């Protein structure tokens, strides 16, 4: 189940974000969290089964598109379709938006046989 990020989830969100190659540095990670907390066009969601096991972050760049900025799954739960379910949940949450990856999320999206490959931001 997709849940909206709130401050009480900060530590788990930072832990999941730290699996992203661009978020290894603590200062960069803190800056990214502040962006999700403060910028109106950036939205962070967590994936919860029994525990929180995944994270997906999106950025609205215009009225038509959502860019998948971050997608991360706890290593113990990888290869079980969690990432695909998070993407599907975002599609359902924003049915009027077209999803596109950034350069860091594109390889995962390709791995998922994502159908909208034309635009990478």
Gist?
The chain is of the alpha+beta class and 121 residues long.
Structure characterization notes:
This protein has 121 residues and is α+β, with helices and mostly antiparallel strands. The protein has a single domain, classed as 3-Layer(aba) Sandwich (Aminopeptidase), CATH 3.40.630. The chain has 4 helices and 5 strands; from the N terminus they run βααβββαβα. The protein has a 5-stranded mixed β-sheet with strand order 1-2-3-4-5, sandwiched between helices. Strand 2 (42-48) and strand 3 form a beta hairpin. The longest helix has 13 residues, at 26-38. The N and C termini lie far apart (27 Å). GO terms for molecular function: acyltransferase activity, transferring groups other than amino-acyl groups.
Question: Number of domains in the coordinates?
Answer: 1
CA-to-CA gap between the ends? 27 Å
The fraction of residues in strands falls at: 25-35%
Order of helices and strands: EHHEEEHEH
Rounded radius of gyration (Å): 13 Å
Mean pLDDT: 90
Looking across the biggest beta sheet, what order are the strands in? 1-2-3-4-5
CATH-defined topology:
Aminopeptidase
Largest sheet: 5 strands, mixed
What's the CATH superfamily, by name? Gcn5-related N-acetyltransferase (GNAT)
Give the CATH class.
Alpha Beta
Counted by DSSP, the helix tally is: 4
What fraction, in percent, of the residue positions are helical? 25-40%
CATH architecture grouping: 3-Layer(aba) Sandwich
- By secondary-structure content and strand pairing, the structural class works out as alpha+beta
Query: Tally of extended strands?
Result: 5
Envelope shape: globular
Low-confidence segments, given as residue ranges, are 116-121
